[in-house]
């Protein structure tokens, strides 16, 4: 569409995603426009089936939108083929998954080193000190089955950040955690987002963690509305 | 390789189980190869060691019984001598016989009749050769049966006598019995059942089994043209193995079993890696979402299969060779030869990789999108 120079972070312009072919179309995303600046933590809430995961998939270069423009780290995704999209995910996008989705065979430290084995990425962070930063250095040699849910999520966050991505996409990070642990994890995400200048989008059902976020967006039937609570309302 | 090696170590129990199956198959391969080689030796080592390029048999003789059925005459030898590319041609007689030594040892023999002094006549370890009528050079393996130098063999049914004047170097057997080289005239008398002292019809001395043909160095023989000229049917030395009693049946049975083993191992390895790959689907989706390329994931998985196959086959072959060494020298026809074992191991690994590759290709069908949303 346009070839204006984008800032880094995430830009969605008029993005629509339609699932299905012909008769029973589902508009998972309906003309969404959204800009997430570096250093900004944006939460997306909304009922089940409203399109939150679809938003992450489109922003994360996993699904091509039916129409509209997606730009990540200043690159228009429409211009990239599959190989380049894979490379863009590798170099500039970090994912934190719902249940951490760690690799069973790897120790905590190796989980964090793993993304760096895919290729020589630009300016990676040191896995050991990053593990320390998320408070997991004392469990560095433990495998996922030896870690608690919160610990796994910390390792997952370190793994997503080790390549120094410009965009961090987080899918319900606290779904399996208790209240206390949830606060810690989202607090950690907020801290990393702010100190590292990464643009972060977090999908969540957990309203108790929204006070960590710079903006809260509500999704209903594929449409986004700003729903940022006034400061100090929560907890 | 980062992930592949760590997964091998992490799931070592599972991989060890698979490796054990491959190793057992490799052991079986080695034993079969040794048995096959042993049977081949028993069947045709006497032929293998002959300096002939091809044999010209009676025209239209049935190929799987050529040595027992064929009869040719001196004319065929002359004709073959003058074929282009032929260095020399000489008569060859082949017959199975039962004999008894003066020590009372019964022994089955394959009597090879050759012209004394011809290129087909071998030399014994003690230097003697096929010269005098009524003498025989025996395969060294006959010693194990209890035959000694200087023994006199009485050949059934006519009672011709053969004096053992030497033993050949190594194993010379044909159709699972020991070879004895005798002068052609003696061979003709034994075959015709001429009793000692009996008058011999001159026709007896005109026939033998085949013309042994030796090609000149580097020459390629036109067997068909030679056959047309001489009125014979030729088999190369190698083809003539099939005319040794039982040879084709034995080797084809063993080859069939080997083929099945290859197929089984490819299927087992394929099934194993299919289960492993399906088990890894979520993990692969996560890796692809994180930006691992399909190519690198495939390479890693194939490297993992190759390491497993190499280790398992190596261990299996090692164990098989040790087991085989224990069998060598027993009454079982068993002979370990590095070359067929190397070929069999390579085939085992290659087919295992084919099985693994078809399984691992499932990786390309994993959608990285399934990494999102926990359970989709
Ligand atoms: N591959 C697909 N094919 C067809 N329809 C789909 C597909 N993926 C999602 N949808 C539909 O798109 C809509 C949005 O789905 P999405 O997964 O984005 O919702 P969500 O907000 O993440 O829900 P949840 O909170 O339950 O995870 C839903 O109506 C869903 O049924
Ligand atoms: Mg979802």
TrEMBL record, chain A:
<dbReference type="InterPro" id="IPR017871">
    <property type="entry name" value="ABC_transporter-like_CS"/>
</dbReference>
<dbReference type="InterPro" id="IPR015854">
    <property type="entry name" value="ABC_transpr_LolD-like"/>
</dbReference>
<protein>
    <submittedName>
        <fullName>ABC transporter ATP-binding protein</fullName>
    </submittedName>
</protein>
<dbReference type="InterPro" id="IPR017911">
    <property type="entry name" value="MacB-like_ATP-bd"/>
</dbReference>
<keyword id="KW-0813">Transport</keyword>
<feature type="domain" description="ABC transporter">
    <location>
        <begin position="10"/>
        <end position="235"/>
    </location>
</feature>
<dbReference type="InterPro" id="IPR027417">
    <property type="entry name" value="P-loop_NTPase"/>
</dbReference>
<dbReference type="InterPro" id="IPR003439">
    <property type="entry name" value="ABC_transporter-like_ATP-bd"/>
</dbReference>
<keyword id="KW-0067">ATP-binding</keyword>
<keyword id="KW-0547">Nucleotide-binding</keyword>
<dbReference type="Pfam" id="PF00005">
    <property type="entry name" value="ABC_tran"/>
</dbReference>
<dbReference type="GO" id="GO:0005524">
    <property type="term" value="F:ATP binding"/>
</dbReference>
<dbReference type="InterPro" id="IPR003593">
    <property type="entry name" value="AAA+_ATPase"/>
</dbReference>
TrEMBL record, chain B:
<dbReference type="InterPro" id="IPR051125">
    <property type="entry name" value="ABC-4/HrtB_transporter"/>
</dbReference>
<keyword id="KW-0472">Membrane</keyword>
<protein>
    <submittedName>
        <fullName>ABC transporter substrate-binding protein</fullName>
    </submittedName>
</protein>
<feature type="transmembrane region" description="Helical">
    <location>
        <begin position="341"/>
        <end position="361"/>
    </location>
</feature>
<feature type="transmembrane region" description="Helical">
    <location>
        <begin position="306"/>
        <end position="329"/>
    </location>
</feature>
<keyword id="KW-0812">Transmembrane</keyword>
<dbReference type="InterPro" id="IPR003838">
    <property type="entry name" value="ABC3_permease_C"/>
</dbReference>
<keyword id="KW-1003">Cell membrane</keyword>
<dbReference type="Pfam" id="PF02687">
    <property type="entry name" value="FtsX"/>
</dbReference>
<keyword id="KW-0813">Transport</keyword>
<feature type="domain" description="ABC3 transporter permease C-terminal">
    <location>
        <begin position="259"/>
        <end position="368"/>
    </location>
</feature>
<feature type="transmembrane region" description="Helical">
    <location>
        <begin position="259"/>
        <end position="278"/>
    </location>
</feature>
<feature type="transmembrane region" description="Helical">
    <location>
        <begin position="15"/>
        <end position="35"/>
    </location>
</feature>
<keyword id="KW-1133">Transmembrane helix</keyword>
């Amino acid at each position: 569409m346009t070839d204006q120079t984008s800032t880094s972070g995430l830009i969605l312009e008029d993005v629509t995603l339609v699932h299905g072919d012909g008769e029973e179309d589902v508009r998972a995303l309906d003309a969404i426009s959204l800009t997430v600046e570096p250093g900004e933590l944006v939460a997306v809430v909304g009922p089940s089936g409203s399109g939150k995961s679809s938003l992450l998939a489109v922003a994360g270069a996993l699904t091509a939108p039916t129409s509209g423009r997606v730009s990540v780290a200043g690159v228009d995704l429409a211009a990239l083929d599959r190989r380049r999209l894979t490379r863009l995910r590798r170099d500039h996008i970090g994912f934190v998954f719902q249940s951490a989705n760690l690799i069973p065979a790897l120790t905590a430290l190796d989980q964090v080193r793993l993304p760096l084995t895919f290729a020589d990425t630009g300016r990676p962070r040191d896995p050991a000190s990053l593990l320390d930063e998320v408070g997991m250095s004392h469990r560095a040699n433990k495998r996922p089955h030896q870690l608690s849910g919160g610990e796994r999520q910390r390792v997952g966050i370190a793994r997503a950040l080790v390549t120094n991505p410009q965009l961090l996409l987080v899918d319900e990070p606290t779904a399996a955690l208790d209240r206390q642990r949830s606060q810690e994890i989202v607090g950690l995400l907020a801290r990393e987002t702010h100190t590292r200048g990464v643009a972060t989008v977090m999908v969540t059902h957990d309203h108790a963690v929204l006070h960590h976020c710079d903006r809260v967006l509500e999704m209903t039937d594929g449409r986004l509305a700003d729903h940022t609570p006034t400061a100090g309302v929560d907890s | 390789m980062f992930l592949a090696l760590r997964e091998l170590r992490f799931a070592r129990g599972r991989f060890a189980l698979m490796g054990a199956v491959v190793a057992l198959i490799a052991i079986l391969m080695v034993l079969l190869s040794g048995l096959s080689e042993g049977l081949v030796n028993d069947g045709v080592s006497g032929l293998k060691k002959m300096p002939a390029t091809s044999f010209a048999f009676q025209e239209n003789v049935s190929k799987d019984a050529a040595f027992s059925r064929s009869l040719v005459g001196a004319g065929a030898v002359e004709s073959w001598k003058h074929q282009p590319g032929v260095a020399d041609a000489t008569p060859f007689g082949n017959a199975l016989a039962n004999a008894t030594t003066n020590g009372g040892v019964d022994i089955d023999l394959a009597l090879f009749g050759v012209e004394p002094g011809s290129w087909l006549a071998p030399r014994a370890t003690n230097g003697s050769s096929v010269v005098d009528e009524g003498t025989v050079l025996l395969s060294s393996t006959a010693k194990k049966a209890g035959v000694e130098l200087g023994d006199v063999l009485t050949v059934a049914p006519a009672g011709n006598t053969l004096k053992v004047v030497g033993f050949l170097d190594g194993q010379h057997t044909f159709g699972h019995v020991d070879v004895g080289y005798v002068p052609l005239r003696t061979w003709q008398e034994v075959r015709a059942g001429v009793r000692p002292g009996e008058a011999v019809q001159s026709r007896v001395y005109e026939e033998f089994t085949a013309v042994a043909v030796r090609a000149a160095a580097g020459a390629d023989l036109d067997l068909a043209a030679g056959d047309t000229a001489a009125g014979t049917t030729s088999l190369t030395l190698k083809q003539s193995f099939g005319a040794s009693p039982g040879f084709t049946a034995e080797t084809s049975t063993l080859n069939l079993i080997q083929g099945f083993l290859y197929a089984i191992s490819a299927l087992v390895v394929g099934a194993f890696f299919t289960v492993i790959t399906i088990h890894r689907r979520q993990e692969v989706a996560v890796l692809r979402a994180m930006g691992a390329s399909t190519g690198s994931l495939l390479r890693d998985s194939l490297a993992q299969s190759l390491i497993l196959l190499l280790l398992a086959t190596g261990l299996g072959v090692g164990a098989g060779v040790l087991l085989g060494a224990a069998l060598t020298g027993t009454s079982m026809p068993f002979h370990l030869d590095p070359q067929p074992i190397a070929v069999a191991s390579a085939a085992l690994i290659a087919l295992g990789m084919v099985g693994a590759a078809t399984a691992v290709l499932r990786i390309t069908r994993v959608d990285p999108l399934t990494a999102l949303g926990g359970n989709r």
